Structure prediction request, 284 residues.
Amino acid sequence: MQHVIASIDSYNHMAETVVDYAVWASEQLDAPLVLLHVLEKGDLPVNSNLSGNIGLGSREALLEELTALDEKRAKLMREQGRLALEDALKRASDQGITDAATLQRHDDLVTTLQELESDLRLLVMGREGSNESSAPNHIGTHLESVIRTLHRPILVASGDFKKPERFMIAYDASPTAKKVIDMLAGSPLLIDTPCHLLMIDADTDTSREQLKEARVKLEAKGFSVTEEVAAGEVEPVINERVKSLGIDLLVMGAYGHSRIRQFLVGSTTTKLLKSAQVPLLLLR
Prediction:
């Protein structure tokens, strides 16, 4: 059975938001919840060779003391992670998930998630790491790498948890966007939530027909859908519609263009990760 995995580091408000969205998703998908903490190898103290800077008489004793101090710091960081998982497990239990599992790894986050990918139905991550800035336009150190590497749905949480009451799909009729429609149509995650289908394009017969095709596919699976074609720049138009329509969740394909194109003109996915005021559900 595939799992909903919530990736957390230290336990604070961002971790609470991640747990809350993961609990909601676990219930919607009827999928078991796993709470994951990865202690990156780079986070642990690195032993420094100071032997050349220490007098002969005290060298051995001081090196032993430094080694012991590094070992103690590493142990404390592992314990901090264990306590973060313990707090997250209690929060999930308080919301009715009594069988959630915890997993602590000492490895690279991306590598760990790749190893777990075959058992992953949905990954929930915070937009910012728990120890990183929550300033506007800031995203976590590992977030882009995870999104580019994994081929599983990723829910990027931010702010306070709010059960989605209306979601929006950013649609461009590309193969990636059509796959997004197929994935949503076959999933119970948002089935009872009204959907606004938005295409940023010239209002032509072709764009209207493309939008209708997507709407009909969703409605055939029981979704309540409104549709709109709007002109303008993609990022500002999407953010304006999110605000004016009271959207709680934005759904889009992740990195649908080539890496060369992204290098030349930038990535809509990255821009919206930084600027969107609601969580993003990214599908590959």
Remarks:
- The mean pLDDT is 86.
- DSSP finds nine helices and ten strands in the chain.
- The two ends are 20 Å apart (CA to CA).
